[in-house]
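request received
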Amino acid sequence: MITQHRIRRRMAATTPVLLALLLLAFVALTLAFGDRAAGRMASETLIRVTLVVGFWIFAGNSGVISFGHAAFACVGAYVSAWTTLNPAMKATLLPGLPPALAEAHWHVLPAALTAGLVAAALALGTGAAILRLSGIAASIATFAFLAMVNTIWANWTPVTGGTSSVVGLARYVTPWVALGWAVAAILAASLYAASASGLALRATREDEVAASASGIDQYRHRLLAYTLSAFFCGVGGALAGHFIGVINPDGFYLSLTFLMLAMLVVGGIGSLSGAVVGVLAVSLAVEALVRLEKGFTLGATTFALPPGSQEIIIALAMILVLVFRPAGLMAGREIMLPARWVTGRGTSQN
Amino acid sequence: MAKLGIHDLAVRYGKLTAISDLSFTVAEGERLFISGPNGAGKSSLLGAISGAVRAAHGRIEMDGDILSGLGPERIARRGLSMVPEGRRIFGGLTVRENLMVGTGIRRDRAAVADDLETAFTAFPILRDRANAPAGALSGGQQQMLAIARALMTNPKVMLVDEPSLGLAPKVVDEVYDRLCSLQALRGLTLVIVEQSSTRAARVGGRMILMRGGRIVADGDAAGFAAADLLSEAYFGDPA
Amino acid sequence: MSLQLLFDALSLGGIYAIAALGIALIFGVMKLVNFAHGQFIACAVFALILPSTDAVAALGLGLLPTPLLILAILGFGAGLAMAAEALVFRPLRNASPVALMVGSFALGVALQNLLLVLYGGRPKAISLWAGLGAPVQIGPAEVPLLQLIVIAAVIAILLALGLMLKRSRLGLEMRAAAEDFGMAQLLGVRANHVISGAFALSGALAAVVALVMVAQTGVADVRMGGQIMLIAFIATVVGGMGSLPGAVAAGLAIGAASALLQAGLPDAARPFRDAFLYALVIFVLLFRPQGLFAAAGAKPRV
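response:
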């Protein structure tokens, strides 16, 4: 006999597998049928999956919107740049780096891991203060944190290069590398969501007061989710840097924050599948709009959307989703195998 | 014609049914008590009449006009006023400001000053504390303020939800005393939610007993008091 | 504290207070943290000039005589905010505060990019009221005339707003609705009326900030509302969410702290002034999560 509970758990366990297969199919299809631009889009999309799934670990489980996660991506991107760039280049571009970093010339994988760890450490430190605030006030504080990181990065010229870009990052991020990290993020997110801490945190999402009355230490679980969440945003930032090869602080500021939020809202903040589906949906829409902005020919005339209309359209779509489908495309549901598939053979004696 | 008519009213919260198939009428100038155990649907009924709660189906009429679906702001304009459960005083506003909030819907501006005078005469304590923040009043004083505040909209029908909640018996006597004399003075139609059927019998009027979202009895409150032991046993919820 | 520093602190803090009031008014009546407020400010700035992507700005509304110009821009700000309310926030009336906040963020992005499409991304010089930079001698200090005007205007606005809230019908209804919206509606207070009114006031306050910023910097920039909106947010949190006097007090305090940091920090650290400011605020909130100026015993509702 298999209890209802165990069936649910087995079904839930199929979610990350199915999401990983979905992304695999996405990469395979774009590489097989798309042009070079489509290949680039595939890598970009998968990097965003890492970022948004990371973001979801905190926002989805806690119900608190953070505006600060782009800052973790920023820190991650620069940590990876500091540790992997050619020392000769760093001597001219970033003369203020401490000697240990100035001479570092690491392999990209430990650099990406370190990027995530540094972002996580920063989250642990700042979250300890920010997450003591209740819901909306915490959101505002994360926004202040984002602005703080941006101000520091834009002005700390000897170490960050200031507003001018840091160039020459090794461009190792192929769609397959990005897929690997995206799948890792999805696995970690579903493991966290199923953990005792994830369950407790989602209980507080519905009702802060009731949850604290039942003895759940909301603050501790929020902090844990925030830290884990920042790790993947840090890694995502590093990947984004090594994908384009050029980073600057404004690349990890309001536009990225907006994009991450839009993806989460469109897909639905209530489930991990919502986060992944949201990234795919918005990325495809952005790609289509970018091509429209470049112009297309219809008969004898060429049409082009004015630059900037991409953001306007995405923003309006986001508002429409909030009004007409507040729970997003996935409406809080997970993609999972139906019950009869996971009960296996020989259990149909009922 | 009945002042207030409720026809086949149903209220649901998600899958939970609070009221089903409820019908009754209230005559002009009548005093109607709604009684029953917790969860009987008394507050949902008042919520639906006042427009704060949306009815799943059914019709609510006042003077033959349909109120259902109008929303609280417009129902208040039709002359229906509410003294809500827990009083819901604006604690940061002064007593006088509390009284004035509901006068925005009135066209008879000149009569507002008279009504304020009436309220202050009925509840002298409110005159003494007119410029004090309402949050500083005692529970009984807040109940009186809530009643006076509802009267300032110049209603024809007034709904009062559990005016005795959390008040000492002597204060409850006082509240009902004022409520009845104001009703006589203004020719109000009153619908009062009151847990205690003995209290309702002492004040006097008609009484409807609710249980599980339906009406189980309807009659003179004094008659219920005679059968008090029975109803108390029936509800298992001593008031 | 030197006299010059005092004037710096007052004029900066005054503008922060006006911006914070714009946020707190709306939060009070509908629990919306309006992330589009910064873009309301930017739109009011660009309303002065004609849409074009040229580098030089051609004045449009900005050509009006000063009193008319001020009225026109205040009206523009109020109208823009009311339109935003009717089109975006009214359909979201029953949504959670989180959904409202995210919606306002999206609206802000849409408005900012609309400005980019209409005006291009480069900052534009606007020559308006150039004479206001002239210094005035007050005792031992030389103070720009503009600072004195700003301080006077802020005082006048605070008094007028206080009077309006305390004495007018709309003010009474707004205060009642801020405490208990459902109860106010039961008393016949019209939700649309009160919320539109709050947005109109907030938009007009955004326009005031816009005019002051243009006069101070002489530039129109698509991004110019962002930084002051952030300060205004911080002021509303520090002031206790939704408390108007708290927002004003916190705005002034942040202005003073900012002026002091600007004067006190060594040269090398000055570009990081705002970072120090934000860190200071997060630190303050660690010890008083309910805000500095929240009434004793008041519990955060959000």
